[in-house]
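worker-03 picked up job from queue 'complexes'. Input manifest follows; six sequence lines, order preserved.
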Amino acid sequence: MNKIITFGEVLMRISPLGNKKFIQANNVEFYFGGTEVNVGISIANFGGDVKHISCISNDFIGDTAISYLNKFDLDTSAIVRSGRPLGVYFLEVGAVMRPSKISYNRSHSSFSEILPEMVNWEKSLEQGKWFHWTGITPALCKGAKETLKEGLILAKEKGMIISADPTYRSALWKYGEEAKDVLTDLLQYSTIFIGGVNEINEVLGTSFGYSNDEFTEASKLLIEKFPNIEKVFDKIRTSINSSWHKIRARMWNGVEFKETQDLDITHVVDRIGTGDAFAAGLIHGLQKFDDYKAMEFGAAACAIKHTYLGDVNYANESDVISILEGNTSGRLNR
Amino acid sequence: MNKIITFGEVLMRISPLGNKKFIQANNVEFYFGGTEVNVGISIANFGGDVKHISCISNDFIGDTAISYLNKFDLDTSAIVRSGRPLGVYFLEVGAVMRPSKISYNRSHSSFSEILPEMVNWEKSLEQGKWFHWTGITPALCKGAKETLKEGLILAKEKGMIISADPTYRSALWKYGEEAKDVLTDLLQYSTIFIGGVNEINEVLGTSFGYSNDEFTEASKLLIEKFPNIEKVFDKIRTSINSSWHKIRARMWNGVEFKETQDLDITHVVDRIGTGDAFAAGLIHGLQKFDDYKAMEFGAAACAIKHTYLGDVNYANESDVISILEGNTSGRLNR
Amino acid sequence: MNKIITFGEVLMRISPLGNKKFIQANNVEFYFGGTEVNVGISIANFGGDVKHISCISNDFIGDTAISYLNKFDLDTSAIVRSGRPLGVYFLEVGAVMRPSKISYNRSHSSFSEILPEMVNWEKSLEQGKWFHWTGITPALCKGAKETLKEGLILAKEKGMIISADPTYRSALWKYGEEAKDVLTDLLQYSTIFIGGVNEINEVLGTSFGYSNDEFTEASKLLIEKFPNIEKVFDKIRTSINSSWHKIRARMWNGVEFKETQDLDITHVVDRIGTGDAFAAGLIHGLQKFDDYKAMEFGAAACAIKHTYLGDVNYANESDVISILEGNTSGRLNR
Amino acid sequence: MNKIITFGEVLMRISPLGNKKFIQANNVEFYFGGTEVNVGISIANFGGDVKHISCISNDFIGDTAISYLNKFDLDTSAIVRSGRPLGVYFLEVGAVMRPSKISYNRSHSSFSEILPEMVNWEKSLEQGKWFHWTGITPALCKGAKETLKEGLILAKEKGMIISADPTYRSALWKYGEEAKDVLTDLLQYSTIFIGGVNEINEVLGTSFGYSNDEFTEASKLLIEKFPNIEKVFDKIRTSINSSWHKIRARMWNGVEFKETQDLDITHVVDRIGTGDAFAAGLIHGLQKFDDYKAMEFGAAACAIKHTYLGDVNYANESDVISILEGNTSGRLNR
Amino acid sequence: MNKIITFGEVLMRISPLGNKKFIQANNVEFYFGGTEVNVGISIANFGGDVKHISCISNDFIGDTAISYLNKFDLDTSAIVRSGRPLGVYFLEVGAVMRPSKISYNRSHSSFSEILPEMVNWEKSLEQGKWFHWTGITPALCKGAKETLKEGLILAKEKGMIISADPTYRSALWKYGEEAKDVLTDLLQYSTIFIGGVNEINEVLGTSFGYSNDEFTEASKLLIEKFPNIEKVFDKIRTSINSSWHKIRARMWNGVEFKETQDLDITHVVDRIGTGDAFAAGLIHGLQKFDDYKAMEFGAAACAIKHTYLGDVNYANESDVISILEGNTSGRLNR
Amino acid sequence: MNKIITFGEVLMRISPLGNKKFIQANNVEFYFGGTEVNVGISIANFGGDVKHISCISNDFIGDTAISYLNKFDLDTSAIVRSGRPLGVYFLEVGAVMRPSKISYNRSHSSFSEILPEMVNWEKSLEQGKWFHWTGITPALCKGAKETLKEGLILAKEKGMIISADPTYRSALWKYGEEAKDVLTDLLQYSTIFIGGVNEINEVLGTSFGYSNDEFTEASKLLIEKFPNIEKVFDKIRTSINSSWHKIRARMWNGVEFKETQDLDITHVVDRIGTGDAFAAGLIHGLQKFDDYKAMEFGAAACAIKHTYLGDVNYANESDVISILEGNTSGRLNR
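worker-03 finished. Artifact:
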């Protein structure tokens, strides 16, 4: 009863080295990522026992993706294979006032073929303790949404903890259903809400502001409407520019509001997947610590992710604990 | 009246360096290619004035593709842009007895959106002398086939020379029409046939063998059925293994059969696009030389393409002429 | 009547990756640049129709240089070829308190052969709207100065706008004429002066200080001496160290003094060509906006150039406008 | 009952790219290998269920090594960790008449700490079907030899098939025992002998020659002395030079002598681990095919390994079968 | 009488590019370093005549190491060769709050074989002016300590200046002697002490704090106990995080306390060897300047080392002098 | 009396990796070379004590060049520095029937400034045993020729052995003197002639053919005309194509004609500097072996150079001896 389950698309990321644009490079690097698998890998790196469920192309690119997940010791036995190609995204990394840019090639990807009958949820959730989902999956296509919903229903039945990161991305949601309706439906099965006022406003149709007080009000209202939701955790990014961010987190856990100090990321290496690192740190933390320390663990996990290239967080548990203990001066570790 | 027109999909090729597989790399290189644009770029490198017509994604990848074509001084003014992503193919380069492997991501690419009304053929064929098409384009989707057909009709009206390389690839042709029917239709507008007995058999439904005599018989029959076709040129590859090929060419030009000597490619650098280099060399050669020398020029262009990385042939006219003059010993050129 | 004309040497830049020195590397990268062609490419990236005139080596390095310009869709048809090699500069990129170092190999380069009779100015300035020159060109050799002067005379006759960036570099000017005399002569044909008190002092033999008031006085005196000059634009760099700069701009447009806010470049990627990006942004801006917004556009163009590797500015118009609109926090652009 | 067990040192290989020497490079690549784990990974790539047992350093290099094994889906749960560093070998890859050179740093590596009490053989051999060992392991140190011997005794008890590749390398064997004595002891537990006349001569103290007849005589004598050994398989390499090899295999299976055709490897990419690929192919083949076809499978696996960079064989079962079916001309695989 | 003698282990450093971890890379770079040789190379770059004494592996890695020292024109004629492998360390470079990590493979390295009889000190110290040693060497093994001690005795006899950098690293000192005892013994021969309160406390068994006053008290006590020591120099690092440091230095030269301004290193490129750069700058400076300027030279040398990749300081004397003259704004050096 | 003296230009070579052209790359590698310094470095690698004399640019590129020579332990103390840039050559490496191409930038290089008064020949030839020169140096400029001549006169006076490799390259010799006259003059001082019938014909104005008989006749006539010349050695290359060469050598040593077997270089890695490797091997061999074995050593040195990237031969004496002993099958060297 200790398996963490993640479900979602695995994407290949292709980007030039450093701050180059595609137009000035012909050497590029590739990584694999995807919001849910990023969470899964990060939890595995913290020592969790993670199973990721997905639909991946049946070619050498798909083989490479699965091998990438195996590398982090994820359980990939429930992944199904598809004749369509793996989703790809191209990334140009910005700097200072230049934003990073992403171009997607995912709308007809292998994951877009997924259907409820392709996943044996009963078997997949064996030994399951925690199920994490995000708003990206139901935004992709109907099949993804319905497959997710079946999983959530069973996970709830089995008494698993269900965390939701309902990230709203308007460029998705093209298959004819409304984000608000779908997220409202899926949030019924969830116990931990990872998101801020934007996401609450999207789901409730409200217009709360960003202050701590309004966040608290919004969280209370969310819990009122979704009594299954117990706690709300929000990560806040302050961007000085593309290369310099600050991260803190705040929470309403049904009882009290708390927030962490800012962590100052003066030299961002790679910001992709940092929100996923927060979610992963939080999920891992909530299994070991109290709510506040879990949130601090999540914020520190998020912060340190900014120092790793690629979509996934390579930090292990002691790397993050060390930051919580105040070791942020980067003393050489011999 | 000296423009060479090519029309077809531009693909991004992504492959690890050397003989690595994706599973053992995270550094990869990208190039752009596509059978018709390969022909166009090669002709431009021989000094031709080439316009390529295509439909390319409206993002930074598409910008990079167009910039790649500009680099070779192709006229890209008639290219239209699409909201869909550029087609991609992934390549693992083999060696010796290990074959190279390709995995495509093109079925919903930007080019798949093309429709006849998106191309202003009248304007595009201004100053047009030669139109080259291949069997890949009509194999992709109905829109591509119909756009091509409109172009061919106008090109014929304008008295342009039309060369056809009806490469048959069974993995394509998924949109509901038969290759044989479509090719038969499109070959009506063509004057130069670049292909061998396989392609003739596919079009005529015959079963000629590979001997020179059968090739001549097949060519005669083809010309009988398609009186607009004047000449047939065939490139023959003998593969010792992935790293060692031999190339020769033969022709039936309505009057006589001729064939070239084998060119021995003892150390293949990159075989992608070598057939396109043959077509390009032939098209360029037919504008300057007699049929036999044009074929020799095509065969030498094909051979030297095996020494360039990427899909396109970087050889200029004098590089190829030098091979025709017997300079194949690779003497250092100071 | 919309061609922007730039004239000047194209150099090959060779530098190790990152902050390495040549002594510790054997992998290097090359780019092409040169102050005027940098301006030209940047304007082309903003959507301008640019023709660059130069003299480039007649070998595979020269072919590569021209192909580099074609990539950005510059009109390269007026470039002449020379038997001498292309100019080269070697760059070691510094960091923090370590300055970058440049070593030139340009004194006998292909451009040093240029003579007035090699450029057909009448044809080159067809459809010409704007002519941009810098003080580097007349500093190189007599032939370059005289070729430039012929171009300026004709450009003035044709009523073109002429912008001058009279950058003074004392290490050049070896061929026997005085910078002051030559620049004084060439400034007669110019309408826009891109430079600060250093350049004005060099031309007028004055010793104005750096304050805004002295800048204004200097500008007024310049315009008094050169009544053809209408406006003076000055870009100001504050360097905390090699890795952290601030940029602002100021102007005297004959009517009023204005200056922009500082743009803070906390993590410099590449500072080469940033002055050229200012000139390009200004020239582009003056064709679309009022003087102040044009200067702001130039300053933002300069700032964002610091985030691109190589000599040229890859930003397009909307990238720069976005900064003017205050989007400097580097929000991810999906 | 389908687990394949391999036991041995995992080494980090560090080598410059291509044919460079360390003295002329500062970019190098690393891989992991080791004769037994190479066999294990290759079998896993053929679809086998492989568990590798080893002792690996307890640092980030060791983490990377284990992650490398996980990537190929090996069972790494029985690997123990050591405070000593992982063994390393440095490789300079030769060409033509220049031999490759290896320099080892392994004598005080993490594996050198292994002792019988560190491996729980009972648990490790659960579900075990096949145990493969080589002469490298007992050559390293007494602890390795004794740990291996305990494993072999239990494997024999459990009725597992035991294959031995008694590679004799005189530079090892420094800890005070004689190769001949130790190998004689360990061969008692083995059923499949993978080696040629050199190895037989070393074990028996004989001096058979290389002819097929002498190989057969030697094999018969070996089986007479070690009645547990049932079959002898020998891979023969003919080296034209460092870049061009030929591979064939022969066997005496107690009943008949057979040999395969030569496979011609005209362009060697990487010869490290090719003997291990033969052993892996043979072990995999003996579980599915008759002896001759198993040997052919092994020889083809060995041959194709020469086309992959690194120590391990990336070929899957169908890649090898395709060679057995005569597809050695390297036809492009779309 | 102008030779600077350094004695100590030469290590090979292997690290992934940028901020990558080994687990996410297979491209790595190597450098050579070691605290004493870093000092030697840096002094050679300042123009000093340096001889480095060491014991280096007798293989192609050792050849590469010696060639690396030759590159900087060090006298390598006294280096002896060993059958053991060269020591290696693996480095993962951190960023912001992520510390860099080092894993060593040195305990049985070539240098660990060194014995007094292997070094001909009489010949090695010919023309010797200065001998520099550090606390790393006697911490490695008894042979290293005794070899060093013989050298120090002879150096003192010959009246050489002897500088000691008694860096205490608790992970070393495994061979059975106490750091305090050994360092106390070796400090008897030394005249310049390069270290702070940590090192003084370790040697004297005291517990001084970090204030300037306590540093002065500690230094006075040290000189009282070791009357041969004349001056104490201390470099102080303030780490904002892994990517942003500040450096200053302070001294008690027997007469007065002085300290330098902080040098702000806003973008650390590589912090390895920066302490060695301080020692080298100080040693070089004490031969040319007064104590305070020598210390300033050392601090500036330390600061600029943070901008060079690798273990050694590439700055020459004028690069450092330029910083002392206040040129820290990184103005481009054409 | 054991110094080998070489005198000539040091060039920087810049070339893309593998078989790429500049137009398709922006990553390039640099090396240093030059025909005489290649000979010097190769002899140093065989164990010789070599001093190279040259004139090198006084910038960081020149520093890098000198550091490159130091790396091989050449004596660089007699090198003078110049304000002009170091000569550069750009190389595109061909394959199969594609020849490699070189473009030079050397005509106004630092070496072109050399004058007799800049070299202190008396001091430079101290301990001199052998002086090697080539026909490239006197072809570059008058100063180079005269400096060389002064050196030769003194070398002859001192009784040194003088070897001449009068390589004739028609693209040089632009300064107004005839190759034939100059070479005739300089050959008076030489004792060993390294060249074939082409060079003899150039010097004598004859037209001997390539047969062994004609080579012998030509050599006899050469020695008749230049009685100081004692022996003639000729290396013969048979190029199947750019990637596959064969090398043999022949000699007339005043007494007998002899020739070696062909060495088959089936996979050429880099052919630049292979003639220099022959000269170096011969010069080294003539000091240790009889004429025939010296020639064999030279031919084997030449052959193995084809397997090293860059201009210089990395083989040491035992690497070459091993080939002479017949070890050309590339057996792995552990």
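worker-03 released lock.
The domain at 3-324 of chain C is CATH 3.40.1190.20 (UDP-N-acetylmuramoyl-L-alanine:D-glutamate ligase).
The mean pLDDT of chain C is 96.
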